[in-house]
Amino acid sequence: MKIEVLGTGCSKCKSLYENAKMAVQESGKSAEVVKVEEIPKIMAYGVMSTPALVVDGQVRFTGKVASVAEIMGVL
Amino acid sequence: MLKETADYITFDLLGFTPGTNLGESLDFFLYDTTKIFLLLTTIIYVVAIIRTSFPPEKTKRILSHKREYIGNVLAALLGIVTPFCSCSAVPLFIGFVESGVPLGVTFSFLISSPMVNEVALIMLWGLFGWKIALIYIGTGLIVAIAAGIVIGKLKMEKYVQDYVWKMQVGNAEIIVMSFREKLDYAREYTLELLKKIWPYVVVGVGLGAFIHGFVPQDFLAKWAGRDNPFAVPVAVALGVPLYSNAAGVIPIVHALMEKGMAIGTVLAFMMAVTALSLPEAIILKNVLKNRLLAVFFGIVAMAIVCVGYLFNAIL
C-alpha cells in the first residue's frame, strides 16, 4: 500500500504525515508513507487544499489534518 | 449580563473604585475577553459547518468559464464561505486558472477570502457593533470585486508564471462528508483556530484596555483624525506587516478609535491587515511574475485607501 501526504511543507502537512505514520503502525499493515511536496504532483491529483492524503492513488482527505483514527478507517 | 458580571468582579469582589484608571481598564478587559471568546467559539463553529459544504473544488466548478462582472461578484461572495489558508494559495490558484476561471475572477476570490473572514467579522461585531461589521463586509466585497475587474481588464495573463499554464490538473472527485463528519471537522477546526489566536486576543484586548483606561481622550485626534490626509495611507502601510493578526489588532484599534482615530482610517487599517500580507505575497510569487504581483498589491492598496477616505468623508 502507498500513502502519500500532499502539501507544500506547512506545519499542518507535517502533522498529517506523523498521523499517517502512526495509523500505519497501529493498523499493523505494511504501507509506505511518503511526502509529496512538488506542486505538479499535487496538482496531478486535482487537490486544491492542502494537506491532503492519498491512499493508493485515491484522494481520501483534503484541507485538513485527518486524525490517526480517521486515517486507519481508510487503510 | 456579561457587563454586570465584569462590574461585579472588578468593583465588588476585587474592590476597585469605579472611575479609576486601573478599575476601568480591568472591567473593560474582563468584559471584552469573555464576550469575544463566547462569540468566537460559537460563530467559528457555525461557519466551519457551513464551509464543509463549499470545498474549493466545488467553488472552482461554479466559477469556471464565468464571465467577468457576474464572475467577480460570485467569486467575492464564495470567498467568504470557501475555506482558505494562505498555505494552499498556490494549488488553489493553479486549480482555478487551469479549469478556466478567468484571472480577474480568481483575484476577486483571492482578495475576498482572507479579507472577509469570520475572525475579523466577529471581532468587529463584538467590539464595534453590527453596523461597522456590515460596512466592513460590504466594502470588503466591493474592493474584491472592483480590484478583480480591473486586474481582468488589464489582460495580465502573460504575467502568470509560464509553468502554471502547462500544468496537468487532475480531477479529484469532491469528498462528501456525512453530517457527523462535518460536526467533527467543525469542532476540530474551532479548537485549532482558538488555540492559535487566543494569545493575540488576550494581548490585544489587554493593550486595548490599557489604552481605554490610561490614554487621554482625543489623544489621537490630531494625528489620526479625519483632518489629517496622510492618516489613511500611513494606516494602510502599517497594516501590511501585521498580517492575519486581526484577532490581536482589532481590540487595539477599537481603543484607538475612542481616542480620536477616524472610522475610515480604522476600516482601511483593518482591511490592510487582513488583505495585504507579506507571507501571502511570497507564496503567490510562485505563480505570479513580479509585475502582476505588484499590480495586485497596488490595486488592492489603492482601493483600500479610497475606502478610508470615503468613510472619513461621509461618517
Structure description:
The complex is a heterodimer of chains A (75) and B (315). Chain A has 75 residues and is of the alpha+beta class. Chain A has a single domain, classed as Glutaredoxin (3-Layer(aba) Sandwich), CATH 3.40.30. Helices cover 40% and strands 25% of the residues of chain A. Chain A has helices at 11-27, 39-44, 68-74, and strands at residues 2-6, 32-36, 52-55, 58-62. In chain A, strands 2-1-3-4 form a four-stranded mixed β-sheet. Chain A is globular, with a radius of gyration of 11 Å. Chain A starts with a strand and ends with a helix. Chain B is mainly alpha-helical. Chain B has one domain. Chain B contains 16 helices and no strands. Chain B has helices at residues 2-13, 21-51, 56-63, 70-81, 89-98, 103-115, 118-128, 130-153, 162-166, 179-214, 221-224, 231-239, 246-258, 263-275, 278-284, 290-314. In chain B, α2 runs antiparallel to α10 and α14 (263-275) packs antiparallel against α16. The longest helix of chain B has 36 residues, at 179-214. Chain B is globular, with a radius of gyration of 21 Å. The two termini of chain B are 31 Å apart. The mean pLDDT of chain B is 88.
Class inferred from helices and paired strands of chain B: mainly alpha
Order of helices and strands of chain A: EHEHEEH
Number of helices of chain B: 16
Radius of gyration of chain B over all CA atoms, rounded? 21 Å
CATH H-level superfamily of chain A: Glutaredoxin
